[in-house]
Amino acid sequence: MRLERLRHPIFSIRRRRVLPRWVRRADRSINHRVNAAGVGPVGDTVFRIASRAANRSILWFAIAGVLALAGRPRAALRGSASLVLASALANLVGKRLFGGPRPLWKDVPVGRRLGSYPTSASFPSGHSASAAAFVTGVALESPAVGAAVAPVAAAVAYSRVHVGAHWASDVLGGIGIGAAVAAVGAVILPPRRPRSEPSVAETGMRVDLPEARDGEGLLIVLNEEAGTSVLHADPRPVFASRLPRARIREMGPDDRMDDIVREEVASATPPRVLVAYGGDGSVARMAQLAREYSLPLLGLPGGTFNHFVRALGVDELDVGLDAASTGRGLRVGVGSLAVGDDTPLTVLNTVSVGIYPDFVAERIRRQARWGKWIAAVVAAAIVVRRARPITVEMDGEQMSVWSVFASIGRNDPGRVSTMQRRRLSTGELDLRILHARDSRLRAFGSLAFGRRTAAVLRKLRLLPRASDVERRVVGDVAVRVLLRGGQVVPFAHDGELEDAPFSTADGYILRLAALSSALDVYAP
Predict the structure, then answer these.
(1) Across all residues in the chain, what is the average pLDDT?
(2) Residue-level pLDDT at 144
(3) Which residues of 202-214 are buried (b: 16+ CB within 10 A; e: fewer)?
(4) Residue 34 β-bridge partners
(5) Phi, psi (5° rounding) for residue 333?
(6) pLDDT < 50: residue spans in the chain
């Protein structure tokens, strides 16, 4: 201890002045007990890695990047901003004001020691301040994500005592600073809250559907390929607990949902409710089958974005199961998409041709090798460099466009890419035509799905000009899509890429109609 005091004479004096004697005694007692407690070599290694990973906040910025890619950019931004401010306050102000010596590293068991120890003042813990600020900031925007990150933050904070880098009071002080910074930030810039205007679910017709308290009569189809690029808890334990009498079928890469459902419908005990656990594509395909067999649909969020079920208010698995157990539902509108002579497809959100299907096609080509998110970045770069306009014909008018989006129901007037619908009971289509009068970069910027992302791009002037975007609200539409360079142009509906199954010598025709009150779905 003498050597420690010689190294930090000012810090030692400040620590005695600021912290009561009982706190110092408690620190020594807690650290002694932590050093004496054995967690085994694996536990020591885990806490040592956690402590090192949080150096310079590398761990938190990595998690923020994952959150941004997973569709939680606001949570990532608030968490990162809170972290930066808390770290500055703890390290540049707190340590200068309070200081204090760190624990002696020689008292720490050898298996826990870091390769090198910081020589800065002990109080408060910068690692703990950053961890608390980040997780609190994330939780303010998304409580569920905050709860998922909280164990990591707790492990980092505790690790600073475990490896002997801090006293327990340093960690508690850092946690207090970090949480306070995030809380003050929430007062200055309040987190996003549910909007006060009526939700989209309130625009549907309320209907009573079969109650499914134990799962009897439910056919659940799990799409194993859906949502593999984001973290989803395994739904099987939840189904086993809450729906023990439901029939569960898992759909592999070579299986067809149509075959599974038709087999079950033809069985001695056909299902009363069809359940799709997957992304928008899986839910849309199940909606088609639900309409074919006049059965209600329960869509559960198991994909990457889950636009349709989120529009219903089903943003978590338990929310959808609660609605099913009480029989609460809505009768909603859908779209009917005919391509050539094939059976019309059921559309839940949007149909698009142009730059978005081009982007999806490029991503799919690379996804198996690099994963969805890296493939998406590469695909974006390729589309910005190589995308070409397409030629479409509507109402006898031929035009060169970057994209055409057709949303089921009226949508946000400020957007071009209307991926998630805003109205559920509707007999209208909302068309957004982006004319090819500007650069590829701005055309790609039109794919900004989030409002805040769009706001940033608008400030940077990377969104299409308002004069280049044409809006039409119609009940039905026929779009002739001409060949591009002799090749058939792909289209997408509900986020899924489709190849036109039928085309003439110059292209094909998409016929889309809005159908009101066409599908019964469970909704909270």
Answers:
(1) 82
(2) 81
(3) ebbeebebbebee
(4) none
(5) -90, 155
(6) 1-17, 194-202
> For position 419, what pLDDT does the model report?
82
- What does each C-alpha distance from 505 to 119, 248, 488 come to in angstroms? 75, 45, 10
The conformation of residue 111, written as its DSSP 8-state character, comes to G
Which residues sit opposite 40 in a β-bridge? none
Give Dmax (Cα) for the chain.
Answer: 91
Residue 499: DSSP 8-state:
-
Q: Which amino acid is at 22?
A: W
Give residue 16's pLDDT: 42
Q: How far is the C-alpha of 268 from the C-alpha of 272, rounded, in Å?
A: 12
Tell me: the pLDDT tens digits for 340-367? 777 889 999 999 999 999 998 888 888 8
**Cβ pair 481, 491 in contact under 8 A:** yes
**Residue at 521: amino acid letter:** V
What is the predicted pLDDT for the residue at 111? 66
What is the SS3 assignment for 66? helix
Give the predicted TM-score (pTM) of the model.
Answer: 0.62
> Could you tell me how many residues make up the chain?
524
* Angstrom distance (rounded) from CA 137 to CA 131: 10
d(CA 21, CA 36): 23
Cα gap 380→366, rounded to integer Å: 12
Do 444 and 416 meet the contact criterion of CB atoms below 8 Å apart?
no
User: Residue 476: helix, strand or coil by DSSP?
Assistant: strand
Q: How high is the pLDDT of residue 13?
A: 38
